[in-house]
Design a protein that fits this description.
The protein is built from 1 helix and 7 strands. By secondary structure, it is mainly β. β1 and β2 form a beta hairpin.
Length: 150
């Protein structure tokens, strides 16, 4: 997808390649006024919460059961999210150990009333599979995706 950036000489918009989301679209939600700070900007914590939920969904699918967030690497907010933007969160399991897994999570904003998408931030989340007792449990072998069979 292209983003129309700053104008070139003559006032013609210059397309900017902003990349493509990696992984599966896992969460999609709209940024609302209740999610803003006193300046009217969407809280970074709200974006982080959406990313954690998306990572948890991907983790539950892969672990075939409960998971908990253990950590995430550093996050840098590249662009702001504004009221009315649709926040799209993409996930990809990048590593599976015995009881833990790393999930790459990217947050993209589809700007209000446009098809323009911009990456907002990304992080690697670590989740641990847990059993009913709340203790770590082994992650079962991967189950082939129904989509892979088509």
């Amino acid at each position: 997808m292209e983003h129309v950036g700053p104008s070139a000489a003559g006032g013609i918009p210059v397309p900017q390649d902003i990349g493509t989301p990696q992984g599966d679209l896992t969460v999609r939600t709209i940024a609302m006024p209740a999610d803003t700070n006193a300046n009217g900007d969407i809280f970074g914590g709200w974006v982080l919460s959406q990313m954690d939920q998306a990572g948890g969904i991907a983790g539950v699918d892969r672990a075939q059961g409960r998971v908990v967030t253990v950590s995430l690497n550093a996050m840098t907010f590249i662009r702001p999210v504004r009221v009315g933007d649709v926040l799209c969160v993409y996930t990809r399991v990048s590593h599976v150990g015995r009881t833990s897994m790393k999930i790459e999570v990217e947050a993209w904003a589809r700007r209000f009333c446009t098809q323009v998408r911009e990456r907002v931030t990304q992080a690697t989340f670590t989740f641990v599979a847990i059993g009913d007792s709340g203790r770590p449990r082994p992650i079962p072998p991967a189950v082939p995706s129904p989509r892979a069979a088509t």
